[in-house]
């Protein structure tokens, strides 16, 4: 998959040099290692992207950026760590739709409001979700899966990377739109979903695409459909849910960097510029392409607007499906 450098990435790279003379507190930052909270378990595509970015940030900003996996509760455990952290730039979140947006719609007792708790830094990348099946399941397409599920109501299990994650609510939406019944099995991240799908403990997975591309190419699992409006170039022969006849069905995973609310703008800007530089670099483009993602980049304001739009899109879906945790 060729990773395209967007215009806003190029603009952000061009402004990177403007952040060399802000307030003294930002000039002094970072003076010690920075913790990057990853709210899911190690080993998945999201974790790999976080580690590639952390290495670049460390080399660019002169201090080590340490990825700390705090999985559980659909990303809320890790999100809460950052929400409670001092707004000094030494604890930041590598977030996904759950802790940065959708969990607000799903969890009744969410310990933080993502729109209030975090200072958006940058939208890093997007990717489709995939409906994947274990190799032994006798279905080769999403249509065949629907027929099998209707003939065996409630018997198919679908692994998702956590309660309330985008994979979870997309699986629930898939059930509703396709008129089938599945049994959702929440895990503490993608790595555990993949392990049990390969082992045959679950029948299906609804999860972020990157970790499943090589497994599909090797024939170890079967990709039945992707959830975006267009096909993924990494799985060009795999149809979209819409192409299977379910018009209007669309969902995409995304990855973003955020800091605790109140983090000085100068620090946010330095993180933003360094991340955009990563996305525009050969190393960044290679890392994004290997993970079957598309680089986005841009400004903190653009990320804030994007999150607001995601909440507007998913709120009626969650309400209609009566999804609550």
From TrEMBL:
Leader sequence residues: 1-26
Pfam families in the record: TctC
Keyword Isomerase: no
Domain of life: Bacteria
Protein keywords: Signal
Gene3D superfamilies the record matches: Bordetella uptake gene, domain 1, Periplasmic binding protein-like II
InterPro entries (UniProt xref): BUG, Bug_dom1
Keyword Signal: yes
Name this polypeptide is given: Tripartite tricarboxylate transporter substrate binding protein
Species: Muricoccus nepalensis
